[in-house]
Write a structure and sequence with these properties.
single chain; about 450 residues; D-Maltodextrin-Binding Protein, domain 2; 2 domains; two-stranded antiparallel ribbon; 18 helices; about 15% strand
């Protein structure tokens, strides 16, 4: 874009670009902000401070819960207006990078922790350091957030974001189907494979898998690698400037184990042509007995979600099984906190901080839990009164888990993750071997390291 174009026009073009992306949904301003005056930026409109907030919470109940928080904040702060841009998660991954490359990115925006987004954005100078804000007034703000999740937003000793939800992946299963057929929840990897054989013998798809977006299938070898060599050994490989060689045999073995799942018919046909919505449908329609997905899908399969009412109480969940002979933590959870950061370019940093502080107030957090049944990373957010049985079970699993290990697609550098996930897509179709996938990943990691060294990063 020409540097002679006025800042206001640049902002509008960025907003239009985001709105035209496939799957993007822009929510109307949450308050009655009128059209911009000629030459005014959104932050100056109507004499108020206007904050642009970008999020992936584009469906109920999260979208409605966020709108309620914004409404309450604006009532308490009439001089600040929040405008939200809610987008489909996979489209958001591209749109936010486009926006960050513009003259006026959103003031507040959602990020996943790890190399793929947070670390990359920090190195690029796109994210404000919130360390001083969190530590002000005897660390009043920091102390009300869950410390382990806050660590996910810390990079080189500084904290750059605020975690909000803890997301983990589990095997969901159809309780009625299991009970009718006498199937047991598997405790080990070999038991899972044997269960898949029994389910397939009944003419039912064992596991629903929608891998059109590439990342869902990568979660299987991600956890398998952790089970084989341990969280620390696996995570050391993700830093492109660190060891990052992916040379432990476990990386290849985990893909061999995924390949065995494919050959045994554990998944539905043509998973690369099935999206996440279709895989959920396979599960709640009774065509698949199990579904490996994240806690982000719990609300979709519960009351007022997309699943039919008859299915709301027909499913339960269990952690990824133990891998016999594995050296890793066998009860570790696969997951990570996600949350929000503030742009380093915003002219309204204080207002943005004020909103995130309000959003993470215990009262607002408790109401979010009540509406969404999710594990909000604020001390005291979950109570006996606002948490249902599934959320309580999830919270107890988190409490007793020996560790939490994030997913490869968030911890890997973006282009390395693309090589890994693209290779897995080919593996599912029989077009690539595990060895070939890892060869491409290692080469891309070496290239990334050289590129970052050349940039002085």
């Amino acid at each position: 874009m020409s540097r002679f174009i006025a800042v206001a026009v640049a902002v509008l073009l960025i907003a239009l670009l985001a709105g035209c992306q496939p799957g993007a949904q822009t929510q109307a301003p949450t308050s009655g902000a009128g059209p911009l005056m000629p030459g005014a930026t959104p932050q100056q409109a109507g004499g108020k401070t206007t904050l642009q907030l970008w999020t992936i919470w584009n469906t109920s109940p999260r979208q409605d819960a966020l709108a309620d928080i914004i409404k309450a904040f604006q009532a308490a702060n009439p001089d600040i207006t929040i405008q939200t841009n809610a987008q489909e998660p996979d489209a958001y991954k591209t749109n936010i990078r486009v926006a960050l490359g513009g003259a006026q990115p959103p003031d507040i925006f959602f990020v996943w922790s790890g190399e793929k987004m947070l670390h990359n954005f920090v190195r690029g100078g796109n994210v404000a350091d919130l360390t001083a804000d969190l530590d002000a007034n005897s660390a009043a703000w920091r102390s009300r957030l869950i410390a382990s999740s806050l660590d996910s937003y810390t990079y080189d000793g500084k904290t750059y974001g605020v975690p909000y939800l803890l997301q983990c992946t589990f095997f969901l299963y159809n309780k009625n189907m299991f009970s009718q057929n006498g199937w047991k929840v598997p405790a080990t990897w070999s038991e899972l494979l044997a269960l898949c054989d029994k389910i397939k013998a009944k003419g039912i798809t064992p596991l629903a898998l929608g891998n059109l977006q590439k990342w869902p299938a990568s979660h299987f070898p991600c956890v398998l690698t952790q089970r084989l060599i341990g969280r620390s050994a696996a995570e050391r490989q993700y830093d492109p400037m660190g060891p990052g060689a992916y040379d432990d045999p476990a990386w290849t073995k985990s893909l061999d184990m995924l390949k065995e799942m494919v050959s045994r018919g554990c998944f539905n046909k043509a998973p690369n042509g099935v999206d996440r919505a279709m895989s959920r449908t396979l599960f709640y329609s009774g065509k698949a007995a199990m579904f490996y997905t994240g806690t982000w899908d719990f609300a979709r399969l519960s009351k007022d979600g997309e699943a039919p009412e008859g299915f709301w109480n027909s499913w339960d969940f269990f952690n990824f099984p133990k891998v016999e002979g594995g050296k890793g933590e066998q009860d570790c959870l696969a997951g990570s906190a996600d949350g929000y950061v503030i742009s380093s370019k915003t002219p309204n940093r204080a207002a943005a901080v004020k909103f995130l502080q309000f959003m993470t107030d215990v009262q607002q957090a408790q109401q979010f839990v009540q509406k969404c049944q999710e594990l909000v990373q604020v001390q005291g957010a979950m109570t006996e009164q606002n948490a249902g049985p599934r959320l309580r079970k999830y919270a107890e699993i988190v409490k007793t888990a020996p560790c939490l290990s994030a997913w490869t697609d968030t911890l890997m550098e973006e282009s390395v993750a693309q090589a890994y996930m693209g290779g897995i897509q080919n593996l599912l179709e029989g077009k690539a071997t595990p060895a070939a996938v890892l060869t491409a990943v290692r080469q891309r990691q070496r290239d990334v390291k050289r590129e970052l060294q050349a940039k002085g990063q």
